[in-house]
Amino acid sequence: MATVHTRPRRAAILLAVGAVAVLGVVPPPTGSAAAEPRTFTLVGSLQDELGCAADWQPDCAATELAPTDAVGVHSAEFTVPAGSHEYKVAVNGSWDEAYGLDGGSENIPLVVAGPATLRFTFDDATHRVALAPVELSGGPGPGDDAIVTAPARDSGAGESFYFVMTDRFANGDPSNDTGGRTGDRLATGLDPTDKSFYHGGDLAGLRDRLDYIEGLGATAIWLTPSFVNRPVQGTGASVSAGYHGYWITDFTQIDPHLGTNAELEALIADAHARDIKVYFDIITNHTADVIDYAEQTYAYVDQATRPYTDAAGVPFDPADHADGGPFPTLDPLTSFPYTPVIAPEDADLKVPAWLNDPTLYHNRGDSTWTGESVTHGDFSGLDDLMTEHPTVVDGFVDVYDEWIDLGIDGFRIDTAKHVNREFWEQWTARVLDYAHANGKPDFFMFGEVYDADAALLAPYMRDTDMNAVLDFAFQAGASSYARGFSATGLRALFASDDRYTTADTSAAALPTFLGNHDMGRIGHMVKDSGDALRRSELAHSLMYLTRGQPVVYYGDEQGFVGDGDLGGTDKDARQSMFASQVPEFTEQRLLTGEVAGSVDRFDPEAPLYTHIAELAGIREASAALTGGSQVERLVGGADGSVYAFSRVDREERVEHLVALNNSTEAQTVSLTTLTPGAAYEALLGVDDGAAATATADGEGALTLTVPPLAAVLLRADRTVGTLDADAGLSVDAPAPGAGLRGQPPVTADVDDDTWAETSFAYRVVGDPGWTPLGTAETTQPRVFHDVTALAPGTLVEYRAVSTDAAGNRVAGSSYASVGVAVDGGAGPGPDPGSELVTVPGSHNAVMGCAGDWQPACEQARLSRRADGAYAGTFTLPPGSYEYKVAVGGSWDVNYGAGGAPGGANVAYTVTGGAPQQVTFVYDPTTHWFTSTAEGPLLTVPGSHQSELGCAADWSPDCLATWLQDPDGDGAYTYTTPALPAGVYEAKVAHDLSWAENYGAGGARDGANIPFTAPGGKPVTFTYVLATHLLTIDVADPPAPGLGEQRAHWIDERTIAWPPSWIPEGAPAASSSFRLHGSPDGSLEVADGVVTGGEGHDLALDPAGLTPDQLTRFPALAGHLALRLPDGLTRPDVERLAGGELLVSQHAVDGTTQAVSGVQIPGVLDALYAGAVDRDLGVTWAKGRPEMALWAPTAQKVDLLLWRGTDVTGQPLRVPTRRQSDGSWTARGERSWAGSAYRYEVTVYVPSTDAVEVNAVTDPYSVALTTNSTHSVLVDLADKAFRPRQWERAKQPVVRPVDQTVYELHVRDFSASDATVLPRLRGTYGAFAVQGAGRAQLRQLQRAGLTTVHLLPTFDIATIQEDRDAQRVPDGDLAELAPDSTEQQERVAAVAADDAFNWGYDPFHWSAPEGSYALDPEGGARVAEFRTMVGALHADGLQVVLDQVFNHTAASGQATTSVLDRVVPGYYHRLTLGGTVETSTCCQNVATEHAMAQKLMVDSVVTWARDYKVDGFRFDLMGHHSVETMLAVREALDALTPRRDGVDGSAVYLYGEGWNFGEVADNRLFTQATQGQLGGTGIGTFSDRLRDAVRGGGPFDEDPRVQGFGSGAATDPNGASVNGTAEEQLARAQHQADLVRLGLAGNLRDFAFQTSDGQVRSGDEIDYNGQPAGYADSPEEVVTYVDAHDNETLFDSLTHKLPRDTAMSDRVRMNTLSLATTALAQTPSFWHAGAELLRSKSLDRNSYDSGDWFNHLDLAGRDNGFGRGLPPEQENADLWPFQKALLADPALKPSPADIAAAEQGALDLLRLRFSTPLFRLGDAALIQEKVTFPGSGPDAAPGVVVMHVDDRRRGSSPDVDKDLDGLLVVFNASDEPVTQVLPELAGRRHTLAPVQAKGSDAVVRRTTWSAATGTVSVPPRTVAVLVEKRASGRG
């Protein structure tokens, strides 16, 4: 319910003059060297009249300004005579110093109409002069009688129009259907079966149906043009007839298709007899297309290119002669850019005869609808008249005067905006005068100005005698509201009514409409919005109940929709009311749901007819509704669904309260009426469920329930309330003295809840008389004053007088100056605040607006973000567009290119072959704006952002640090003076995310860029888009290096120092260096001098760093080597390394050249190498814990111990002992078992520059309390935590190459499994109970699955472990639409606190995650984890853990930072400047450091030994070194069954071998990446086969790039991103080569003939510029087509396969894609649910998408597709692709489809293990036995044939004793294929038994001909044929 804040009614009026202030540069104050006070004199052309001897006399005492109480401010009053003057202020009586306009040298103009006393004020601080009238008119008085006038009303207004296309309404006389012509339709124009031709309607039919029109309540009929038209124009497909009336050849006669002039007179007479007026639609802009051009080209030629010339050849502009005077004589052969030609037979075609003169036309070619062509260009060939010519003006005056004589009551003027304004000024005045003089006092003319903004429409009423214009702005707002958009659009629409308010005009005269013959019907506009009939009724209610004259477009009252091939516009919307013969018309449905059919449609009982008739009757009976004021009361209800307003007639003064609701739910709102205490009677809405009565309280408050999609009309029982006459007057002018330009608004602030009329007037100061500006009728009264005719400096007084219903008045005045501000200064432009901010432009229609360039369109709204910027994202089709930004719903305040007020349009292009999401952003401070279609949105995320208004640091999506480029030079800048002093880091992010970011040196994903802010000084960030270089300029910067750590202490004796700070050209030896240290962090730097602590001189080693040192630290190449003095002992070094450190560099004279902090990992590794051999964490001996924490820089470490896991009490404090290797140790008691503990580490922390006391958990924790707040002492050998099944179950043994891995998330496994007890869902325990998930794993294992790979199960920092505190999304998400955004909104709202996350946020590496445990306390989670492992082992499945040692979730002093609070600055990989690298996503771990590597190795060993884990997958393994991975391998190999209970050598290792980030290309060490692990047995994921099968890559902007498994080249999806047919074929052939290589193990040496015809080895085949083949052995490659990253396989295929692909075929392609990994000679990796068509509702990155989008139904009932649009953060750019797919029910598989996919996948597993030939396990065997027949340039697209030959040949082993070989055919095409393989002729292949007896009947259609070696395979099928062992073989 809306809340209404009431306030006392007050008799107050606040006057505001909206103005554009003139801004200038404010120079600094000028001080005087002398002690004497400065004097200031007003000087100028007015001095001699103010008592001076002469003008411009700086030493005249008569005009000297006197000091005021304000320092530096002087003022004086002078009576200035009438006239034009100039002035400025002189200082100290001379011209040495003087100030004028805006504090500059220019004189200030002043114009007054009579003697006026003015106050001049000069401020010496700003050097600006202010000016104010001393006396302004005050409260109301008798003089106001001349100002107060009634609001303007046009006597010809007040009608209800029925707009009819005569040819399509009724056929009363079939004899005139051919227009008196003979022949076919091209001669007569008649073809009732074609919507482009005449159908037979006529004036006679219209006359016959007057009862029908009268019954609708119409009081005026508006006819489409009825003059004689050229019957047919155009050729070929564009041929059509002039049935619409706009191709006129004779302006004096009725077209014979429609009737005669006499029939028109008869129609008018009959209509007048019913009090119905008749309006003619007229044209002055053009005629029919009669004139051709001799040049036979028709492109528009502007005047700049070819001006007009007169007959003598003199250039001229018609605009200079458009005032009605003499016009240049023109020559048709020379005067025009084109030579007009008229066919002889058409020489006299046009009537009147003057129209046949070709020089009376513009003859410039077809309009482009922009610039001068709007008024000079031909309307698509129609002859454009030169309306500047007096002959044309006079001729059309005569033409239309004659129609007035015939009896026409008014004109609708076509294409008014395409005719010059001077024409209208002359023509409208003369025609209106003629009508008035000839008995037509109410004659009314309204123009068609096709713009939806009052600022563009109103001038036709203000500046001409046009009575009104068609209200296109209303049409846009009303249709949007009817479709369900917020009523804020209506608020903006009606707020702009003031544009029409003058002394003679108002918005009350505007014809309002909902649709027409050009833009289409309201029925079409609402047809897709739900309940379209009621929405059309709602739109008509709005039209009839609001101000203006309603226009019903014929047929709307019968529910016509007007659908068609033109998108509902133009000809689509011109149906026949009589029985149509056009199939397109007859076959479409009406809004009622009824098929239109070929029947007459004049049903007076039609729902819309009766609704409109009722509205018309109510309106006709109410003066308030026909012509009363309209006062907005409320925009409220859910999503702004309710719009309420009051209508009041000034004579009756009774409130008619209207409320409309566009929601499908009833809305209850509270509002304040204009009539306190009134009882209201409902006149409309009761039938829809509204209450029949309502009562307002004494303050006018009323609560009202508005039925859904309905309007309510209430009439008060008394007159409106009045002002409190005793209240004081409050006058306010927000910008007194403001500078005025153009048409500034003049506003008055009156009581919000009192009806009153406010009259405005102005006068030039000194003039006793007032000039009226108009009377406003709302509670936000405003008028506009056109000041263009007033001279600069004219001082204007404005007055507003408001009169209430009782005649009480309040009044106020203000003043302003034309052209120059006289307010003494200028402030920034207003912030839009809550005003409507939109992006009006040529894209508005496709955004859902009713037309383009609509500043009030709600669908183009930008919303204010938390960071202060405005933004909006819209889905736009490809094309070129232009736009601006508008504030307030109109053009009053708008910004163009560069943020300039009223500036140029900004152009952009949406590329691609499908709609794209485009985000627009606007800065309300700078007014700059841009969009993602123009380039990336650029921000500067960093550690400074929280100081600048961002919610958090490192927020790429915060526009408070938005880089802008107003001048468009490609250099984007952001400047802030607001940063406090400190050291910060920054980089640049593109498009508000980390997906593309640039750091130091312009490197993508590069290092953070440090900078130091001095505090209170400007810091400017400049980013050059072309180079990606970010520079940070700091005013008054400190010494270089300060705030950074660019010194590197790499061993006991050496510090590496950057050479960049050595002065250019100087030798390094010319500088000296000093090490400063302080254990307590007391070093200070002031003016470059380091104070505090101790200092030691460093010696420059001219030999530089040694080769050994550079091997260890390759990134330090080129650094200087500084040696520590020999006198420093090891204890000294240890002491220094544990405190604050700085190194300073000095010049010979002692000047400081640089000061930098010091990185210490190198020296710590050197000092404490022995710690690598220590057992860290907790070890147990005879039940007692031995505890060790490595903290070499700590000054003190205490153990804090809590008995048990209740940590609310005070802990026991236990001192620890420091050991020589930097460890701190303690020995505990048996009783400590199960106790919680922490370490309290006292240590210097560089990031805080202080000694901190950190209470931290143990980095080696194996057990924890809930949410990991404390470590827990648990002995992993304790039998209490060793479940029996885990102890007894044997670990399955699997060869690496046999690995068939199922990637599974612990929570996904059972979170939605109804067969598992609710308390066990999502837990480790679910793996050990009988449920659908376990049954599925067992089924897969029986088929061949060997291993379950679990996503991270170590302790995770980002999941709530208290199950009672875990949040779930609100509501029932299953009830929402499959393409809705609501699901993701609700999921995102709880994502930070729900139970789900992938888990790649390490907290403690060696303890199980607690959120997956029933009991996360202590050892309970250990036991539950082991229960899971035991159950999987018992089911015959190995367990692989996903390990993330490349980063931690946090660093520094964050609560989830462990390592950095124990040894600050050691464990994380730092940039050269000392900031943490984040290329992995988060805080990168430097496992190349000895103790970081040890932590990784020890953790892996713990999981393998103490949990019996069978394998490990390493996240971003390429960020580790080969050395580190071999250390892991070596440690595992040392585990033996006898000593450790496990065989560590059997543990399989694999990981992501991607090459990127700061370690890329082996910059810091030899990385564990693809191709660099040969001989190690460690596997890497292969993206080669993945991308080849799926198509494209995982981050494609357009996800429809096809691959081998998604129809590339064979079944194209039509997306342009796939390229031409030739490009598709070439890519498909190469993709097939990558598939072949992947099937053969992706070996670097495997060779075959590729698609280019060459025999190439794997490392010679290209994959995105890299060698495709990289492995030495097949187990070093993990082949996959689906994983937790990116879209699931099913979702990928949904994007890529043609939309109409049947689900059964989608199932087959899913199976075929999986077959490429299942049948490969490598470990095979499957994403959980891939066998069940698993979908994540197209989510590209579901890491934090909750259970909802990560839904996994292992029972096979629901695959998860259609659960709403996936989360916006990761998928917004793909929503335009995703929405239609998700909404398509045909793309949702049934349980039967899922079952078919499952059976196909099981068959693949069975095939994989049906013969060892799929798993040869040896590179040499693969090269010997595997071939690809049919490969090469002639290979069939979409087909791969693989042969494995197992015949004994020489020393080749016989791998499968039962087979001589196998043949595999992958047919990914949509057609059967036949492959002739002559090299296999004679071989005896048969379909493999698995498939012969399997689930797929289609594959059994495979045939083999041994005679010819021919195999035939059905479409979308993988077929395996085996060759049984030949008899006698042996």
Rounded mean pLDDT is 93
Proportion of residues in β-strands? 15-25%
User: What low-confidence regions span 5 or more consecutive residues with pLDDT below 50?
Assistant: 1-35, 727-731, 826-830
Number of strands: 99
Q: Using only CA atoms, what is the Rg?
A: 42 Å
**Multimeric organization:** single chain
Q: What percentage of residues falls in helices of 4 or more residues?
A: 10-25%
Distance between the termini: 89 Å
Q: CATH topology of the domain at 9-150 and 739-827, what is it called? A: Immunoglobulin-like
The biggest beta sheet reads: 8 strands, parallel
Number of helices: 39
In terms of structural class, how would the helical and strand content be classed? alpha+beta
CATH class of the domain at 9-150 and 739-827: Mainly Beta
Q: What is the CATH homologous superfamily assignment of the domain at 9-150 and 739-827?
A: Immunoglobulins
What general outline do the C-alpha atoms trace? globular
Write out the strand line-up for the largest beta sheet, numbering strands in chain order. 23-22-21-16-11-10-25-24
Q: What's the architecture of the domain at 9-150 and 739-827 in CATH terms?
A: Sandwich
Characterise this structure.
The protein is of the alpha+beta class and 1930 residues long. Among the domains are: 9-150 and 739-827, Immunoglobulin-like (Sandwich); 161-282, TIM Barrel, CATH 3.20.20.80; 834-935, Immunoglobulins (Immunoglobulin-like, Sandwich), CATH 2.60.40.10; 937-1037, Immunoglobulin-like; 1047-1167, Sandwich (Immunoglobulin-like); 1579-1733 and 1789-1825, TIM Barrel. It contains 39 helices and 99 strands. Helix 6 runs parallel beside helix 7, helix 10 (472-482) runs antiparallel to helix 11 and helix 32 (1689-1696) crosses helix 33. The longest helix has 19 residues, at 1621-1639. The radius of gyration is 42 Å and the shape is globular. It starts with 13 loop residues before the first strand and ends in a 6-residue tail after the last strand. Mean pLDDT is 93; it is low at 1-35, 727-731 and 826-830. InterPro entries: GH (IPR017853), GH13_cat_dom (IPR006047), Glyco_hydro_13_N (IPR004193), Glyco_hydro_b (IPR013780), Ig-like_fold (IPR013783), Ig_E-set (IPR014756), Pullul_strch (IPR011839), Pullul_strch_C (IPR024561). Residues 163-619 form the Glycosyl hydrolase family 13 catalytic domain. Belongs to the glycosyl hydrolase 13 family. This is Pullulanase-type alpha-1,6-glucosidase.
